[in-house]
Amino acid sequence: MIVKHPITSPLLSHPDYTPIETTSRQRLPTDENGFFAGTLATATTIPHVQTLTYNKLVPLASSGVELEVESAWRTPLEPPDILMLLSLATPGLSGHPGLAHGGLLATVIDEAMSLALEAHSQIVSSFFTAQLDVRYLAPVPVPSVAVVRAKVVSRAGRKNTVRAEILDNGRICVEALGVWIEKRQTHKI
């Protein structure tokens, strides 16, 4: 469904983007990723996901200066660090008939943001959502194919600010700003 869809087909063949593994779709022995890799990976929820990463991505260095919230909201998403293409099914994702549940849309944004952070990381690290401000601009229909765009807009020490949006047929339906904290690295003596 994703490959032959008129919205996603050009993205999949875009020369600036490369398909990558959607790591949050891998269920780990610790049950990490269980929600996105298990509960939301069924024929009636999100049967298909494809993630693309920007080929010219330059890892964002820590500036030491925290970006103000209003400036972060205005930071352009072009080019997005990550594109996540999702098949949204029904009835498993419905909040109201024919419309995706808002909590599910926040979850999808959270996943895309984590993949954008992962793309910027020089080392294997863990990030945790500290704050997620989601603005619902229009309903997202189900079933449908949605595109999530995510971009890391600033780093200040362990604090990362990420923007994302969900598009349906090119229209921005949901936008979000998240603050993510990188887990402290522990060193054995």
UniProtKB/TrEMBL annotation:
- Tell me which residues make up the Thioesterase domain: 98-170
Kindly name one Pfam family recorded for this protein. 4HBT
List the residue ranges of the region (Disordered): 1-31
Q: Which domain of life is it from?
A: Eukaryota
Q: What is this protein called?
A: Thioesterase domain-containing protein
- What organism is this sequence from? Penicilliopsis zonata CBS 506.65
